[in-house]
Design brief:
The chain is an alpha/beta fold. The chain has seven helices and ten strands.
Length: 266
């Protein structure tokens, strides 16, 4: 199915640990300079029963009267999601690939890049000023730090293990280290832990922040000037506050990128 479709649209970001849906009732202006924002959102934990109730995000339009455009980095969850949409009678479904995006991807295998990373770059191109580079950080199951050049092309980036992923690995591959729940962390931990669990929490969190800081510094040197720095993802709010006033957090960066990609395709 062609990506082009009239709005209303539900943009869907299928990640490794959650599904995010956002309703856009009208097409954004492709020549604008602000990100389109979803009017209604729904975050789904696919491990929970009954997670497929989608009426809340569709509002008055109804599940079958909107176009569903999906970006996914999780094949199993994607298959289940599409199967459920079909069971609900939905026909207007399309999966985004790198080929449909209004983005130059300066890499040898653009179809092998995570679609969420590319959609973050689409959104960044909407916000950065002419001649300014951008750095887009996704803080989720994995952490990605991505570079958009001053000409708007996606240059690639770095992929790090996410904070929760690192916590599971430390527990799994050692004998005595406990499993630390980093999902409950709303504020930065003390850097000096006074017990094993506190020390692990400190190392996991500040190690991730340090890696992100270092990559931002290296990318900034590479491009010169002051790039736009954007963060998104479940753990991004606490990290963004530690990167200075030039870093901006946006909860719906990927969903906005989907809406822009669909609008450009019309």
């Amino acid at each position: 199915m062609s990506l082009a479709s009239p709005f209303p649209l539900v943009a869907v970001d299928v990640g490794n640990s959650r599904i995010k849906c956002g309703l856009f009732s009208g097409a954004p202006d492709v020549a604008g300079h602000e990100l389109p924002k979803p009017e209604r959102t729904l975050t789904i934990d696919p491990t929970q029963s009954g997670w497929i109730d989608l009426n809340d995000v569709c509002g008055e339009f109804g599940v079958g009267r909107v176009a569903w455009r999906i970006a996914s980095v999780q094949r199993k969850t994607l298959a289940t999601f599409i199967e459920k949409l079909r069971e609900l009678g939905v026909e207007n479904i399309a999966l985004l690939t790198s080929r449909e995006l209004p983005l130059e991807i300066a890499l040898p295998q653009p179809d092998r890049v995570g679609i969420d990373r590319l959609l973050g770059a689409v959104a960044a191109n909407r916000l950065r000023t002419a001649g300014q580079a951008a750095i887009v950080v996704h803080v989720g199951s994995a952490i990605t730090v991505n570079l958009v050049a001053a000409d708007g092309s996606f240059q690639g980036g770095a992929i790090l293990p996410g904070i929760a992923m690192s916590a599971r690995a430390m527990h799994q591959f050692t004998d005595l280290l406990p499993l630390v729940d980093m999902a409950a962390l709303s504020e930065p931990p003390a850097p000096v832990g006074d017990a094993t669990q506190a020390a692990m929490t400190s190392g996991l969190f500040w190690g991730a922040v340090g890696g992100i800081r270092q990559l931002i510094e290296l990318y900034s040197r590479h491009v010169g000037g002051e790039p736009l720095v954007l963060l998104t993802g479940g753990a991004a709010p606490s990290v963004a506050r530690l990167l200075g006033t030039t870093a901006h957090y946006d909860a719906h960066l990927v969903l906005s990128g989907i809406a822009l990609a669909v609008a450009h395709a019309e």
